[in-house]
Amino acid sequence: MADELAFKRWKSLEPGIRKKLESNVFCRKCGVTTIVDYEVEYTNSQFTLKGSCQKCHGPVARVVD
Ligand SMILES: [Zn+2]
Known about the structure:
two-stranded antiparallel sheet
């Protein structure tokens, strides 16, 4: 799915749910962290968030079922 549509779909989720998912991402350096500046992909009914760790700015990703 095109990124724009994926992003739209992501934005249609409840803000509270999105926030919870954004703030529960695993970073190899920091452990549980918040993802920032991320892109959204949507494939096989799953969102994939790809962005940066809020603490160390390293790359982090999260798959959301
Ligand atoms: Zn980190």
